[in-house]
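Field notebook, page 188. I keep forgetting to write these up properly, so this time I am using the form the group agreed on. The chain and the ligand, coenzyme A, are recorded exactly as supplied. Prediction of the bound pose follows.
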Amino acid sequence: MSEVVFRTVKSSQVILKELMVPSYANFGGKVHGGIILSLMDKIAYTCAATHAQGYCVTASVDSVDFVNPVEVGELLTLYASVNYVGKSSMEVGIKVVSEDFKQGIVKHTNTSYFTMVALDEETRKPTPVAGLQLEDEEEMRRFVMGKLRKKLRRAHQKEINDIRQALDQDLSQAMTELEGENCLLPRG
Ligand SMILES: CC(C)(COP(=O)(O)OP(=O)(O)OC[C@H]1O[C@@H](n2cnc3c(N)ncnc32)[C@H](O)[C@@H]1OP(=O)(O)O)[C@@H](O)C(=O)NCCC(=O)NCCS
C-alpha cells in the first residue's frame, strides 16, 4: 500500500520577479495583459508541480481583474501558494504587484486563482497528489476558502451547462430577441 504524503504550503511557495521591458508594451505604452497572464500561468505551474512532484496542467483560471496598469520599467513580482488540494487538483493563489523603483511606489496589480491538475506521466489521466500540511490559522483559512471556491466553480459550471442546454432547445426563439442589442442583423 502506498504511503499517504502531506507537504507544507511553504515547501511549494514561489516568488517570481520580472522586469517589464519595452518589448512587453501594448499600443498604449502599458504592459500587455497577456504578458502578465503568461507569467501567472508559469508560476502556477511551478508551484503546483513542486507540490505534486510531477506533471500538471492548468484546468481553469478564475476571473482576472487588472486593478492597476503596469508600466514599462517597473518590476513585477508574483507570489504563488497552494491554497487547497483535492484529490488530483490544486488551487494555486497568485498575487501580482508592480513596483516603480524611482518613485518607490508598490501597486497591487491583480489576484487570481488557478486550478491545476496533476497528471500521470504515462496515462495522462488525473493522479492523486499529496495532501497539504497546514501550519497556521491563515493556511487553514485559505484552505477553507479554496474548498468553497471549488464548490462555487462546479455550481457555476453546472449553471452554464444548464443554460446552454436550455438555449440549444430554444435557440430560434432567442435569435428573434436580438432587437435592441448592439449588433446588426444579416439582411434578408
Ligand atoms: C483538467 C483535466 C485533466 C481534467 O480531466 P477530467 O477527466 O475532467 O478529470 P476529472 O473529472 O477526473 O477531474 C479531476 C480533477 O480536476 C478537477 N477539474 C476538472 N475540470 C476542472 C475545471 N474545468 N476547473 C477546475 N477543476 C477541474 C476536478 O474537480 C477534479 O479535482 P479533484 O481530483 O481534486 O477532485 C482535463 O480536462 C484536461 O486535460 N484539460 C486540458 C488541460 C490543458 O491542456 N491545459 C492547458 C490549456 S492551454
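OBSERVATIONS:
- The mean pLDDT is 95.
- The pocket of coenzyme A is lined by residues 57-60, 86-89, 115, 117, 126, 153 (CB under 6 Å).
FOLLOW-UP: compare against the apo run.
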